[in-house]
Amino acid sequence: MKILIAYDKNTSISNVLEKGVERAKADGAYVYLVRTCSADRKIEELSELEEQMNQIKNDVFDKEGIACETHLLIRGVAPGEDIVRYAKQKEVDEIIIGIKKRSKIGKMVFGSNAQYIILEAHCPVLTVK
């Protein structure tokens, strides 16, 4: 089994990681830890984000004995679209994402990446508050 755990700057990652570890251990899954960011970031910022992801991999997944690889998706499209494309490319069996409450106006103006992922993904999506 393959699980994609996706997060961005707005996601409370601790709950997402906790659920991801639980699911991966239960199913003996391989984990893809994915973070999205915009293409206008400086090289130093991208390096820092990659370093943070590797730290999470070491501190959480390696410590638990879970096979994991990290990927920083530098998007040219919306984050939800990037995640759905990547999940399909890697043929993952489940996507785990964090969600947060947003006003109706916020959803209308900014859209909802979680909603896009839930509706467009080829596999089940587990949302975590």
The largest pleated sheet is described as: 5 strands, parallel
What is the CATH C-level name?
Alpha Beta
CATH superfamily label: HUPs
**SSE succession:** EHEHEHEHHE
Backbone CA Rg: 14 Å
Protein name: Nucleotide-binding universal stress protein, UspA family
Family: Belongs to the universal stress protein A family.
InterPro entries: Rossmann-like_a/b/a_fold, Universal_stress_UspA, UspA
Coiled coil: 39-66
Short description:
The chain has 129 residues and is α/β, with parallel strands linked by helices.
Describe the structure.
The chain is α/β, with parallel strands linked by helices and 129 residues long. It has one domain: Rossmann fold (3-Layer(aba) Sandwich). 49% of the residues lie in helices and 25% in strands. It is built from five helices and five strands, in the order E-H-E-H-E-H-E-H-H-E. A five-stranded parallel β-sheet has the order 3-2-1-4-5, sandwiched between helices. Helix 3 packs parallel to helix 5. It is globular, with a radius of gyration of 14 Å. The model has no long low-confidence stretch (mean pLDDT 91). Keywords: Coiled coil. This is Nucleotide-binding universal stress protein, UspA family. InterPro entries: Rossmann-like_a/b/a_fold, Universal_stress_UspA, UspA. Belongs to the universal stress protein A family.
